[in-house]
């Protein structure tokens, strides 16, 4: 046992002191924070000045509707002119309306010397569509018809709650649970694949450098394999914890400097006008979403994530260790890695499709199969899973993981000292009986 601890310590310290680990640990949280913050920050930046847009309305019905925004200054013009499209004209674009749009929807165009800006196109489209709708309603000469149609088209949202057998209710939101489940699924998939590959790479490097020949003279091959598996797992957990703390601090600092209430819609004049404003989330719904987030089973999610990561990592890392010990070069791993990657890909797709029906046959059976349960079960947990299914899934997962660790250890002890030969599946099965 002491020798295994020494191997774990060596594997852990060697990796956490490496330049690759230090650089990834430091820069990855900044990259994630940039992905989250930079788009919102850039969208909140307003243009320094208004861009001129000429409006040529030959009908005289629509020109008065175009009011200036923070980004655009609309100028009514009597006729279109080629001088509007020169590089030095100072005109961003020209809106030309030639006929009644209620009867001829194709009678409007926007011309420019380059591609028309998306925010201008959205603003003009929404503005004219609203006016055309009002004109068509007015043509029926029915008093209050516009209010009637607006009232009929007015939708509603269904409030979802979680109610226990005592009648207590707590806020719930299906979209929040879906996002949380998918995030955990992708996270555990990435970490299991990455850490398992690190185990295989570490074993192959020591085998290629013949260092393992000296190590197995002092420790048993199984101790060497378990030391590598546990050591790299501790490296992954350490890195994950550091990332979580750093990302939280970075986002908190960004919210102070850039403002926590950055509104992307406010940066777009197409959404600034009342005539074409996008539907906003009412304060009550925003409060319900926050309540739903706070009511997620964070303790259960965190505990299950750790347990399923450990079980899934032991399962796949032992397989990767056996593969690394059996081959002599990176290119020899393809025949063994392809089946494993196909299984992992199936687990990811099963998790993504199970989010639509977390209690369906696909979600249920894949959350019990040990090769897919670490990925699929994380999708179901935010929606609530019966305790007996979690216990059964974990029992099957850890039993299978320990069995594979034992089997991989028997392959490892033979393959780690085998050179110059590319083994087959049949030959690796014979090693189990040695």
Primary descriptors:
elongated; 4-stranded mixed β-sheet; 434 residues; 14 helices; alpha/beta; two-stranded antiparallel ribbon; 60% helix
Describe this protein's structure.
This protein is α/β, with parallel strands linked by helices and 434 residues long. The protein contains 14 helices and 6 strands. It has helices at 2-16, 19-44, 118-139, 145-153, 174-208, 211-215, 221-258, 283-294, 298-326, 334-354, 361-366, 373-380, 387-415, 425-431, and strands at 51-57, 72-77, 91-97, 108-111, 160-163, 169-172. The strands form 2 sheets. The protein has a 4-stranded mixed sheet, with no helix packed on it. It has a two-stranded antiparallel ribbon with strand order 5-6. Strand 5 (160-163) and strand 6 (169-172) form a beta hairpin. Helix 5 runs parallel beside helix 9, helix 7 crosses helix 9 (298-326) and helix 9 packs parallel to helix 13.
């Amino acid at each position: 046992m002491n020798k295994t601890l020494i191997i774990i310590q060596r594997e852990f310290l060697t990796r956490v002191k490496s330049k690759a680990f230090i650089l990834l640990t430091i820069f990855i949280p900044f990259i994630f924070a940039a992905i989250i913050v930079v788009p919102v920050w850039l969208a909140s930046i307003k243009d320094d000045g208004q861009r001129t847009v000429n409006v040529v309305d030959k009908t005289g019905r629509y020109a008065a509707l175009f009011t200036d925004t923070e980004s655009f200054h609309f100028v009514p013009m009597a006729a279109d002119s080629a001088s509007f499209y020169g590089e030095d004209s100072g005109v961003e674009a020209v809106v030309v309306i030639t006929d009644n749009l209620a009867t001829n929807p194709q009678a409007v165009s926007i011309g420019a010397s380059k591609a028309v800006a998306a925010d201008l196109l959205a603003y003009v489209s929404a503005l004219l569509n609203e006016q055309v709708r009002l004109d068509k309603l007015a043509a029926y000469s029915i008093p209050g018809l516009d209010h009637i149609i607006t009232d009929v088209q007015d939708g509603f949202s269904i409030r979802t709650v979680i109610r226990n057998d005592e009648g207590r209710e707590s806020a719930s939101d299906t979209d929040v649970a879906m996002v949380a489940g998918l995030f955990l699924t992708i996270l555990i998939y990435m970490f299991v694949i990455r850490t398992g590959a690190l185990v295989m790479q570490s074993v192959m490097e020591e085998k290629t450098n013949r260092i393992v020949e000296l190590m197995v003279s002092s420790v048993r091959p199984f101790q060497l394999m378990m030391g590598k598996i546990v050591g790299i797992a501790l490296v992954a957990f350490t890195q994950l914890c550091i990332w979580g703390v750093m990302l939280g601090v970075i986002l908190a600092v960004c919210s102070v400097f850039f403002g926590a209430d950055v509104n992307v819609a406010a940066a777009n004049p197409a959404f600034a006008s009342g005539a074409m404003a996008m539907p906003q989330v009412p304060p009550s719904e925003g409060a319900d979403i926050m309540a739903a987030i706070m009511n997620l089973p964070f303790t259960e999610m965190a505990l299950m994530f750790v347990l399923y990561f450990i079980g899934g990592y032991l399962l796949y890392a032992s397989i990767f260790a056996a593969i690394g010990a059996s081959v002599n070069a990176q290119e020899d791993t393809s025949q063994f890695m392809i089946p494993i990657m196909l299984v992992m890909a199936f687990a990811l797709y099963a998790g993504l499709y199970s989010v639509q029906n977390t209690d369906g046959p696909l979600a249920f059976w894949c959350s019990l199969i040990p090769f897919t349960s670490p990925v699929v079960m994380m999708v179901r947990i935010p929606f609530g899973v019966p305790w007996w299914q979690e216990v059964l899934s974990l029992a099957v997962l850890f039993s299978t993981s320990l069995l594979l660790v034992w089997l991989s250890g028997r392959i490892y002890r033979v393959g780690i000292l085998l050179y110059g030969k590319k083994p087959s599946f049949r030959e690796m099965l014979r090693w189990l009986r040695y």
